[in-house]
Specification:
Blueprint: H1 2-27, H2 34-59, H3 61-64, H4 66-90, H5 94-126, H6 130-159, H7 164-179, H8 183-188, H9 210-219, H10 227-261
Helix pairs in contact: 1-5, 1-6, 1-9, 2-4, 2-5, 4-5, 4-7, 7-9, 7-10
Length: 268
Amino acid sequence: MLINTVILFLRDLLPIFILLTYIRAFVCPPLLNRYTLGLGALVSLALILVLFGVSANVSEMLDGAGLEILRASMIMLSYCSLVIGTLLATLQREQLAKRFLFVGIILFTVVKGSAFLIFFDVYLQQTDALYTVLTGIFVGGSICLSFSAIHFFLLQEGYASRLRPLMVLFWWLFLAGLLGHVISPLAQVNVLSTDSAVWNTEFLIHDSSEYGHILKALVGYESTPSLAFLWLYSLAVLVPLGLRLLSRLSAAHALLRRLLAHKPEEPL
């Protein structure tokens, strides 16, 4: 039970901690002040409790696929909001970027938090070992906090050095892994097929192990990825990188036009 509780933290809550460290480290640091953190925590908790309360009714919709479709839709909306917010932040549209990033964080937190609460509630009903559960909560929470603190330090130091492009690339890989979370709920309702794996690296790191969950939280690691996952992951990385490149080219083109249109003052 202790190991299961820790695994739940790594699977469902660690990605939220990692998302917040990226936002705080370089994506949009002003967003995570005391006000927005408090407001985000309250809104997320309220929505998690609402989704937890109606999950039984929602799961009966769409021929039993309602809950999975809802989660997949929220993850896709979260990914789109985070991508748009990041691109707006690079264009110095800070206020608008904050709104999109805030919505993306809330949606992802609600999806992962509700999944954690549902499975955790099932575990509590199956065991009387409350002490073991509380110990697992303490250990899992400590791992998430410690990992996020180290991760934040590495991101901040890397972004301030020559490794900035690499840190930005890790952010886009994290977002691609975030979008990859839609594969599991969609596969459960037979919207996507995950039967045939393109390769198998379970002999190195199994994605259900502790290290596998950490890598999945960081970059969306899958030991047996399907073709649908690889296509989705590739598009999730390449599309925002392409949009960012286009925005930089358009900004450079606009600057060049202003320079060419500028007429130097005539000498006296």
